Amino acid sequence: MGSRMTWPQLQQSDDFKGRWVALDDCRYDARTAQPIEGSVVDADEDLAELCNRIQQGDNRHCAILFCDGSPEMPPASSRRPSLAAAPPSSRAFTH
Q1: For every one of its 95 residues, what pLDDT tens digit does the chain have, with 9 covering 90 and above?
Q2: Contact predicate 51/65, CB 8 Å
Q3: What is the value of pTM for the model shown?
Q4: Secondary structure of 4-29 in HEC code, one letter for each residue
Q5: Residue 71's pLDDT is what?
Q6: Sequence-distant (≥ 6) Cβ neighbours of residue 62 within 8 angstroms
Q7: CA atoms 43, 48, 61, 18: torsion sign
Q8: 92 in a domain, yes or no?
């Protein structure tokens, strides 16, 4: 994949709607600390499959977000979890 996209571009893309997207080399919002742009590493409808591929690959520090088609980032309390912040031994989803 490798294309660099902003969050609104990802959300509007038919290629990513309803899929989990792994982003690397992210740029983060200073206020929310959420990724707002990054290089697309991989995407899948199945979070477990995506995580398995990411763990086996070279991009182990990706932000993983769910694209629901909404142009806005969801509120922090309702965002889908990201594996980027969790230590490898505990895959607890936090924000």
Answers
A1: 678 999 999 999 999 999 999 999 999 999 999 999 999 999 999 999 999 999 998 877 899 999 987 766 644 433 444 444 443 333 333 33
A2: no
A3: 0.70
A4: EEEHHHHHHCCCCCCEEEEEEEEEEC
A5: 63
A6: 22, 23, 24, 41, 42, 54, 83, 84
A7: positive
A8: no
Residue type (1 letter), 4:
R
**The total number of structural domains that make up the chain:** 1
Domain for residue 91, yes or no? no
Instruction: Identify the domain containing residue 66 by its residue range.
Output: 4-85
62 in a domain, yes or no? yes
Residue 22 in tokens: 């792994």
What are 42's two structure tokens? 């991989």
* Residue 18 domain-assigned (yes or no): yes
